[in-house]
């Protein structure tokens, strides 16, 4: 179906942070499949693990135990301090699972506790329930009616948040960094306030880290940078380096909410995806890896800010999740980058978004920044 605005490019292979098209032209990848190819393309350990697992066992269904899924779940809990994991296939599915946990948890205390509060500018997925949770009107047009029980508050408005978290609320669902609306980090103070209010009122705090988690910001969970421990965390995108996967992590009471028959997934936690994810976790756990991601992010931001470019309003983000707000149409900058052999993304109404592989070398950062600046210079000449 015609659901994507495609460029017409057909990629046939990739190596590291470079993709090659059918015509032989090579492109520097600052998009990572929308934050998915965390270890870049053709990573030797990831390729070997996928091939070896495919030769042994791809899928058996969750009526049986998968050693790979069990070990992945144990590693995720050890890495995050969570108590239990549900494995699925995507970020939207992970958020659906989190919403089900929140609703059942709320109902177990009071049947009226059904409301999930989310933030304006949020994006939580494209299923009907996760669209209802998404606090952007443009995603709602012509897809209603939506399920009831979702309310939105303005991000960083402490009074509005305090008022919204009432007796009928079962959960607060937020992204530590709002990705699709323009790479907008929530302040540490706001996240800590949210955590405190939720704890005081028996409301679950759900961190949607589908895009900003799994090392993207320079820490395994973006929420941990604010010193916050959510009750539930959702992950996907970069977790298996390109193989579809999602995960719902929970602790305490939230980890014991779902019982047999409450939830399920045909493909979730299959041995192939789990084996790939274990490689990603292993690489992220290597000495200095996450510190390097944080350092690379600073290299990006410092460079863009040093340009003092007349088209750049702001450069923001954490780690290798970067948003560059521009005064011209960001889609045009994206097109000009593509012409120069650089793949970038957009977000919101005015942001060029960069999500390069976490393994990108400094030399490729500098090369890509040169291409980006050249594209911005060309855009400036068109105005």
Describe the structure concisely for a colleague.
Helix content is 37%, strand content 19%.
Strand order of the largest sheet: 4-12-11-10-7-5-6
CATH class of the largest domain: Alpha Beta
- Please give the oligomerization state of what you see: single chain
The share of residues in helices is 25-40%
Query: What's the CATH topology label of the largest domain?
Result: Aspartate Aminotransferase, domain 2
Order of helices and strands: EEEHHHEHEHEHEEEHEEEHHEEHEEEH
**Which parts are unreliable, with pLDDT below 50 for 5 consecutive residues or more?**
none
Overall structural domain count: 2
Q: Classify the beta-strand content into a percent band.
A: 15-25%
Largest sheet: 7 strands, mixed
So, CATH architecture of the largest domain? 3-Layer(aba) Sandwich
Q: What structural class results from the helix and strand content? A: alpha/beta
Number of helices: 11
The tally of strands reads: 17
């Amino acid at each position: 179906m015609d659901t994507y605005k495609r460029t017409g490019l057909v990629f046939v292979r990739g190596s590291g942070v470079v993709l090659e098209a059918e015509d032989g032209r090579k492109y520097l990848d600052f998009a990572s499949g929308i934050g998915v190819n965390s270890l870049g393309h053709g990573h030797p350990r990831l390729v070997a693990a996928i091939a070896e697992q495919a030769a042994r066992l791809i899928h058996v269904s969750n009526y049986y135990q998968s050693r790979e899924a069990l070990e992945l779940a144990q590693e995720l809990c050890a890495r995050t301090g969570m108590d239990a994991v549900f494995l699925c296939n995507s970020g939207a599915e992970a958020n659906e699972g989190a919403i089900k946990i929140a609703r059942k948890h709320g109902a177990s205390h009071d049947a009226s506790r059904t409301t999930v509060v989310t933030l304006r500018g949020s994006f939580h997925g494209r299923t009907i329930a996760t669209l209802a949770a998404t606090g952007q009107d443009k995603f709602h047009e012509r897809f209603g009616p939506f399920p009831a029980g979702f309310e939105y508050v303005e991000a960083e408005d402490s009074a509005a948040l305090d008022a919204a978290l009432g007796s009928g609320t079962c959960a607060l669902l937020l992204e530590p960094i709002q990705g699709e609306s323009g790479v907008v980090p929530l302040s540490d103070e706001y996240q800590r306030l949210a955590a405190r209010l939720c704890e005081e009122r028996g409301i679950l705090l759900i961190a949607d880290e589908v895009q900003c988690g799994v090392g993207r910001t320079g820490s395994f969970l973006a929420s941990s940078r604010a010193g916050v421990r959510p009750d539930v965390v959702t992950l996907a995108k970069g977790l298996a380096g390109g193989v579809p996967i999602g995960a719902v992590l929970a602790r305490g009471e939230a980890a014991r909410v779902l019982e047999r028959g409450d939830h399920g997934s045909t493909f979730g936690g299959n041995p192939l995806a789990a084996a790939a994810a274990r490689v990603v976790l292993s690489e992220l756990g290597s000495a200095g890896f996450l510190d390097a991601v944080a350092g690379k992010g600073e290299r990006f931001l410092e460079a863009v800010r040093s340009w003092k470019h007349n088209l750049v309003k702001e450069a923001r983000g954490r780690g290798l999740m970067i948003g560059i707000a521009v005064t011209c149409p960001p889609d045009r900058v994206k097109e000009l980058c593509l012409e120069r052999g650089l793949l970038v993304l957009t977000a919101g109404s005015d942001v060029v978004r960069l999500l390069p592989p976490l393994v990108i070398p400094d030399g490729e950062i500098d090369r890509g920044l040169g291409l980006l600046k050249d594209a911005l210079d060309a855009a400036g000449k068109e105005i």
